[in-house]
Amino acid sequence: MPLREMANRLDQRANSNWLYIVPSGMYGCVHYLSQKYGNPAIVITENGMDQPGGLTRDQYLRDATRVRFYRSYLSELKKAIDGGANVLGYFAWSLLDNFEWISGYSSKFGIVYVDFNSPTLDRHPKASAYWFRDLLQH
């Protein structure tokens, strides 16, 4: 089944209409690359999901969907590594809420909330930032 069709059937999408949430794709891609190309060194970059604009700060900070996203994607990545994939690094997208070319500042990809209305651009860790902290400490 094509990835897009599977994602539609599961109704798992991030805020962006082009971003489907399919954790098994992480394992599938890493495993395929490892098998097809002689287990090259792999670095995963820009893996993340966005929240819609217009939420309250408290809603942004309680990003349980993002926590589930990272937990499931990293679980699939670990499965690929345990199977022998040569994964050297992983970079979440993104540390901070930032400017996105298509949606400007309204789409929130960061694990740290940035108040773009504050003159000092105040930053507040989201639940997903604390989840990453706990993951990395163990």
Automatic annotation (TrEMBL):
GO terms for molecular function: beta-glucosidase activity. GO terms for biological process: carbohydrate metabolic process. InterPro entries: GH, Glyco_hydro_1. It comes from the Eukaryota. PROSITE patterns: PROKAR_LIPOPROTEIN. Belongs to the glycosyl hydrolase 1 family. This is 4-hydroxy-7-methoxy-3-oxo-3,4-dihydro-2H-1,4-benzoxazin-2-yl glucosidebeta-D-glucosidase. The lineage of its organism: Eukaryota, Viridiplantae, Streptophyta, Embryophyta, Tracheophyta.
